[in-house]
Amino acid sequence: MRVVIQRASEASVSIDGNTVGRIGRGYVCLVGFGAGDDEAKVERAVEKIRKLRIFQDDNGKTNLSIGEVGGGLLVVSQFTLYADCSKGTRPSFIYAAPPDKAERLYEYMLAYAAGKFDTVERGEFGADMKVSLINDGPFTVVLDDTCL
After folding, report:
1. Considering 62, 80, 93, 140, which one is annotated as catalytic?
2. Mean pLDDT for the chain?
């Protein structure tokens, strides 16, 4: 599992010009699933995201979690996080989870996160989405198997 977390002051995702998810201050999480991923790994990722302290406190120190600032979560599936570019110039996605498994894990992640965050918004699995955000900082963190 790979998650690219971008701290945002606002963000949205649209499909065919229609906004399907929108948050104010919070995290945009681009999520890709690997062939060996399961629900336990999804739970560990959500807990890590919930506990990350990447918002600034009153002293300007990066010390607050998303819950402490009342932030929202926008979760967007992105299998391209598993692009393998080691051979040639056309990416391979052989390490990405099959679409049916990835969609199941994506839906599980959204349901699990809904019990942990005040606001959880989403994209649509497999859709051609346009993601807009104001990356606050910018501050971007990548979670993968090394920290889950």
Report:
1. 80
2. 97
Buried b (16+ CB within 10 A) or exposed e, 107-139: eebbebbeebbebbbbbebeeebebebeebeee
For residue range 29-78, list pLDDT tens digits in order: 999 999 999 999 999 999 999 999 999 999 999 999 999 999 999 999 99
pTM: 0.95
56 noted as active-site residue: no
Is 78 part of the annotated catalytic residue set? yes
Which of these is catalytic: 78, 89, 93, 140?
A: 78
Q: Residue written as tokens 């198997």?
A: 145
State yes or no: is 79 an active-site residue: yes
Q: Which CATH superfamily is domain 2-143 in?
A: D-tyrosyl-tRNA(Tyr) deacylase (3.50.80.10)
pLDDT for residue 145: 87
Dihedral sign of CA atoms 33, 39, 44, 50 in order: positive
Q: Where are the domains of the chain?
A: 2-143
